[in-house]
Amino acid sequence: MGTKEYLQMMREIKDCTFATLDGEGRPATRIIDVMRVEEDGLYFLTARGKDFYSQLMEQQFVSVTGLTKNWEMLTLRGRVKRVSQELLTRIFETNPSMNGVYPGDSRNILEVFCLYEGQGEYFNLSETPVYRETFFLGHPAEHKKGYEITDACISCGICAGLCPQQCIDAGEPYAIRQENCLHCGLCVENCPAEAIRRR
């Protein structure tokens, strides 16, 4: 699948966890509705009186996570910007439940934000082995996750034998199938040659 499909899955989940940092640098999370998805990003709302609004304006960054009923997790971390209020009417038209929460002109306290650039991950826990894929929105710098086996590998096979997802293939050096890796670090902790490192 591609970025567009993953963003649409987040829209279908709708109620996702949005994370920022509070004024003391500690994590702050809340459930926010994904209101709209377009080619250029993921759209959501918040009121100007909320801490979330202040944090978005100051940090211009958010992390969003959702889980489908089929145990498919989607995460998207990236840059946000406040966008034109012209979208507010369209968002209320496609999300009619908002009319009961902010009836009439009270909706004008809301601001529309767009997550327009970031790196995401699709992680399917229902498959064996698990499956993960990275996707990108806009043109962010890539941040690799997980582990890799270096040329210091002595091909002893200990890591492959211990891997809970059996995603390490024999070779010189052995190789981790990144799309099936849990990122648990068990291989790193048990490698006698210290040949495994973070990517």
UniProtKB/TrEMBL annotation:
Any GO MF annotation of the entry: metal ion binding
Keywords annotated in UniProt: 4Fe-4S, Iron, Iron-sulfur, Metal-binding
SUPFAM superfamilies xref list: 4Fe-4S ferredoxins (SSF54862), FMN-binding split barrel (SSF50475)
Any matching Pfam family: PNPOx_N
Top-rank taxon, per record: Bacteria
Residues in 4Fe-4S ferredoxin-type domain copies: 144-169, 172-199
Function as written in the Swiss-Prot or TrEMBL entry: Ferredoxins are iron-sulfur proteins that transfer electrons in a wide variety of metabolic reactions.
Cited PANTHER family: PHOTOSYSTEM I IRON-SULFUR CENTER-RELATED, POLYFERREDOXIN PROTEIN VHUB
The protein's name: Ferredoxin
